[in-house]
Amino acid sequence: MSLSFRTPADSLPLGTVANPYIGTSIGETVADDSGSEDVEEEAETKAPTPRPPMPFSRQSLTRFLMIFLFLLALYAIIDQSVGTAFAAFAGVILFPFIGFGGTLPVLTILLAGLMTTTIGSIIRDRYTNWVKMARTQKVMTAWRKEQMEAMRKGQQTRLSQLKEAQQGFMKDSMEVQTAPMKSMAWTMFMFIVFFTWLRLFVDVVLQNHGNQWIAVPWSNHVFLNSAYLFPSWVLLYSLLALPFGQIVVRLLKYYHFRRRLQAMGVPLRPGPDETA
């Protein structure tokens, strides 16, 4: 009578995992067949893929140029030699066009003022949404009126409702308030260059020609470098340029509002039935 013993391994079906230690000597490395290849494959599949290159961002480039020009403008204010160098470079272009050889100082100052205010107004228009600004100002005016009325009557519930409503237009309000800051770097640098060039024009060119005296409606002899609150040529520049700048801004506003009304299909002028 023979006895047979069955081990647990004998009960496993054929084709299952075999013992890797059979047929190997002590000290040899044993390959792990318990799924190491699958783990390696999963690690390879989970390896981080290289990030695609960042796309070109026009806003980032514009922001960099704004910061760079703003710092450059501040540096030109601190170091006058830098501003003089920029003005000398601008004079290569400006003097042949609006210098007139130093014979017409009033016309030169007038044209310089028109150029700076026109370019500054166009830059400001580029960064300002006039339609959104008008809508936001209208909403804020109505909101303040309602707030003052609720505070006067002591309506706490109404005040809490108005505070919640404020969150809705706060984003537009911040955009409207920060819009002039975006154009300040460009306009500040431009004004520094033009003002420095005008100062060199008055101090050097007109002095060499002996043509630093002008006639104005209130006086026949005005020295351009005579200082009251500012030099006379600065006051003359402001007198001629600032009103023209307001005209340019109003024309740009009218253009944008007209385009918006045409897009909405609203007539520019009310008809006889609407005015009645």
Overview of this protein structure:
The chain has 276 residues and is mainly alpha-helical. It has a domain of 149 residues. 68% of the residues lie in helices and 3% in strands. It contains 8 helices and 2 strands. The chain has a two-stranded antiparallel ribbon with strand order 1-2. Helix 3 crosses helix 6. The longest helix is centred in the middle third of the chain and has 54 residues. It is elongated, with a radius of gyration of 38 Å. The N terminus is likely disordered.
Short account of what is shown:
With 276 residues, the chain is mainly alpha-helical. The chain has helices at 36-45, 58-78, 80-99, 105-127, 130-153, 156-209, 232-264, 272-275, and strands at 213-216, 219-223.
SSE map:
Elements lengths: L35 H10 L12 H21 L1 H20 L5 H23 L2 H24 L2 H54 L3 E4 L2 E5 L8 H33 L7 H4 L1
Antiparallel strand pairs: 1-2
